[in-house]
Amino acid sequence: xxxxxxxxxxxxxxxxxxxxKPNFIESDPxxxxxxxxxxxxxxxxxxxxxxxxxxxxxxxxxxxxxxMELMDNAPYAFILNHTEKDxxxxxxxxxxxxxxxxxxxxxxxxxNIYKHGGFEKAFAAKPPNDMYSGLINxxxxxxxxxxxGRTAKHIADVEKNSSAKxxxxxxxxxxxxxxxxxxxxxxxxxxxxxxxxxxxxxxxxVARKLGLLKREQDDWKAVAELTKExxxxxxxDPVKYDFALYGLGVFEGF
Length: 254
Hints:
- The protein is mostly helical and 254 residues long.
- It has one domain (5-250).
- It contains eleven helices and two strands.
- It has helices at residues 5-19, 39-51, 57-70, 75-81, 100-115, 119-122, 131-142, 165-175, 201-209, 220-233, 241-250, and strands at residues 94-95, 98-99.
- The chain has a two-stranded antiparallel sheet with strand order 1-2.
- The model has no long low-confidence stretch (mean pLDDT 95).
């Protein structure tokens, strides 16, 4: 399906409007952080749920909610104040290859992150106009504890050409603020213009059909290529089109 630039923008804008509505939330993993109102609770719930975001969406949501229950549905307070005894509740928790040991490392690392300026600061990009460096900086900060071990595989490494789909989705949730009620927009120091589009099987397939992406592998080079094309359509908010690409693929079988 080949469309001219104006036709393509009109088509994708229409789909963005169609899918970016509150009724999108219920069946999407973003429903888990929407259980909370405190900034830090939202961040933590969103980060864990985004980390789980591979496989069936009902399973992702169920395990995200289960993990919140294990943190007494007050994740920020739990992370700051938990004891070693509290962590025993996580024994046996798993989401696919994410095991209880990974959950415990995440909890300890997040405590460290919050002690050193918080989640948003950990993604600070240097240079400030390049979120590629922000993703690198976050990975280094998050895996800085000596006990990371096998948990490192759950944090994408863009320097090794990972698409970083889950981290880019998490950033979309935190940064975009279009007042539509889906994305939270609670981070103010990162511009939506700097975000990279989450890329998965569905959005990649649709992007290729629309001529937005030529690269066959779903890796970082493809993410950069796709995002470059989306910035031509909306330089200030390119990642809004994630709603369109994902919705076309999942809900319309495009």
